[in-house]
Amino acid sequence: MIKAMNNLSECYLSLAKNCFLKKLEESFLYNISTDDLYHLNDDAFAFFSDLNGTKKLRDLSKKHQIDEETLNYTLKEKLIETHPIPQRKMINIATFPASKTPSLRYLHVLITRRCNLSCKHCYLGNARGEDMNPKLFKDIVKEFERIGGLRLIVSGGEPTEHKEFEKINSLLGKRSIRAILLTNGLRLSSTHISDISKLNFDEIQISIDGLEDSHEALRGKGTFQAAIRAAKKVVKSKKELSIATMITRYNKHQFERLKELVNSFSAKSWLIDFPIPQGRAPLTGMMPEMEDCKLMKYSFGSEVHEGAGDQVCGAHLASITTEGMLLKCDYYLDWRGGNVKKGLLNAWINLPRISIFDLECECEHLKICRGGCRYRAELYNNNNRLAPDPVACRLYQYNVGTKPTDNPEREG
Fold first, then answer.
1. pLDDT classification of 363: cutoffs 50, 70, 90
2. C-alpha torsion angle, residues 179, 183, 189, 191 (rounded to 10)
3. If you ran DSSP here, which 8-state letter would residue 384 be given?
């Protein structure tokens, strides 16, 4: 915190190195280090656009009428930096160009179908030796940056099993998006901390599906301790750690103790999901009771399924397969916008969309839950994509028509 503005009047101001300006539906400043998104009015956007490291505070404060309180806030949030001499910084403003389409902010990229585990809840089925071409990945990252993307979520399969994972990692250096790695932690558990710190990912999400007995009932012998070692190494490497957990019949009674474990890592977020009865899940006996979905209340942290206008299913979110097909999400192979080899923006614009007004839901919580998961709704309602999602209905303590619990066959 500074004492007074006049103490800094001769300093040069620049936008902090991890902060970037985005013109989406509105103007924003995005800090990729903290994953914080700041909405800016026109005056604030003009001020931040001027912070190229060659102008003194005294001149900027006169031009933009910046007061001491505002300056102190931007310094406290580490949005700007001060320099005793000029430090030129290029200000690039990423812009989403399609005014009639929600901006693409969160992109889930499946870089491989390879995996080193055979988890009981996997909806993808058997692993396959398919890797995304690094050239295609490079093109995706470049265009995602250009149109104002925020979070690039790298997944699989197990992404660290990609035959050219080091090349994929190198393509994420010096960019204006937050890169997140989703992993089971098996490879990272034997990776040196210094090598983890060199990864070009801001956040690493590790799957921990219960305490040792329940996690290994789902993922196999030795996988729990490997995940714990990986999580500890991520924390020591100074990368941000997040945890993902799937609700199963094995871990449903462990969430209070799981909460203590997650908190011991000071995890940035804890994402908890309810499995879908597809792939291995309905064959392995791991499916929990439908009412167990309420354990999702333990989750906290980042979210990518936010709405926009009347759109459902994460208005700003899409997935890309190893071969480059853009999907609404990786559950859907038929809900697609086209191959991104012809352009990411083009595929995003062409992606079919569903309005909440099209849903067969009559619920006071609809504007909040926005229909939940459309894929789950299909599975529990005879392939009807517009039907209510029974998990979302229970989360908001509301059932429509015949309760799904009245039909035991729907419980998976």
1. confident
2. -40
3. -
300, containing H or E segment? none
Using a 10 angstrom Cβ sphere, with 0-12 exposed, 13-18 middle and 19 or more buried, the burial of residue 74 is buried
Of the chain, the end-to-end C-alpha distance in Å amounts to: 56
Residue 112's pLDDT band (cuts 50, 70, 90): very high
- Whole-number pLDDT of residue 127: 73
In the predicted model, is pLDDT for residue 361 greater than 70? yes
- The phi and psi torsions of 136 (rounded to 5 degrees) equal -65, -40
DSSP structural state of residue 73: H
DSSP β-ladder status, 178-183 and 203-207? parallel
pLDDT in tens, 19-58: 999 999 999 999 999 999 999 999 999 999 999 999 999 9
CB burial string 303-321: b at 16+ within 10 A, e below? ebbebeeebbbbbbbbbbb
- Cα–Cα distance between 189 and 223 in angstroms, integer? 10
How many Å apart are CA 243 and CA 265, to the nearest integer? 9
pLDDT surpasses 60 at 410: no
Q: What angle, 0 to 180 degrees and rounded to 10, lies between the N-to-C axes of helices 212-219 and 223-236?
A: 110
Query: Which DSSP state fits 320?
Result: E
